[in-house]
């Protein structure tokens, strides 16, 4: 990891951003030092990706100031800003009609006006750096998801940025491909001395690679510190609750999702963490019941996160849009049969449950306590 420098590369003051009147970033302050690796962690909906997208003006802030290497980002030529600040997204976004080599060469030749020979030499070096020297002439459809993301990293590096932003670069990958992409990012962090901001759900990776960690919640940097401080000695309650989850799995679901595949993933996840069979079966019944009798009667899409804590408690988090809909307040089936079903499940199984509205989204959380 890089040594902390006295000079700040990015300074953010009072950053605010809303979408359709719903605040996502709320007076956010943050500083990232030159050559520093900062991982940004936190629950879904905390504003992590929006924060990154504001840094290079893919999203225009509503208010606040972003200084990049001492210059106001909103007063900079946006093309210069994005050359200085490369970004790797969740989706690979490679040009399907171009080879891996041509994808990497495209921006330097068109934007930087590099000669084809110089751009090709640099692109080949980058392909070797990301472990794909033998795939120069492969098209995206001939590459695995992990390989495509490594090409995307090389493409961002081809513009010779001083700062790299990674927005959940492994979230769209099959679990078997995650480590190959994390390995490339880890290598860059160890060798390049480049300033990096990495939004990730890979906690072990964040702990190993980071100089500092930002824990974001409810649109702000709720707590920051060294990786050791955040993962071993978090000071604030929300940070402690998040960090104690030793693993999570996240799904974005609509009414057409693969029910059987989803059930299998849930059961596999619980088995991996040695959740006993009785609680695994309860977990699957609970989720299926909630989907069939509540969520897909009320909403079209939701984000579901399943977490396991150090104590083997199972935590379920459902985030969904629409008007405020708190089933915990319904006392009779005649009021709202779907919501009453949720309340009945909670009471029958003695679950801990909580409902909140966060950034305009309904958030319902359950805990299946470990057997004592």
Structure, explained:
By secondary structure, the chain is an alpha/beta fold. 37% of the residues lie in helices and 28% in strands. A hairpin with a 4-residue loop joins strand 12 (301-309) and strand 13 (314-320). Helix 3 (100-110) packs parallel to helix 5, helix 5 (145-157) runs parallel beside helix 6 and helix 11 (277-298) packs antiparallel against helix 12 (337-348). The chain is globular, with a radius of gyration of 22 Å. 37% of the residues are buried. The model is unreliable at 1-6 (pLDDT under 50).
Question: Which oligomerization state do the chains in this entry correspond to?
Answer: single chain
Distance between termini?
Answer: 41 Å
Q: How big a fraction of the residues is strand?
A: 25-35%
Work out the radius of gyration: 22 Å
Q: Helical segment tally? A: 12
Helix content: 25-40%
- Overall SS class: alpha/beta
N-to-C SSE series? EEEHEEHEHHHEHEHEEHHEHHEEHEE
Low-confidence stretches: 1-6
For the secondary structure, the number of strands is 15
Q: Please give the largest β-sheet.
A: 6 strands, mixed
Shape: globular
Compute the average pLDDT.
Answer: 88
The largest beta-sheet arranges its strands as 6-7-8-3-9-10
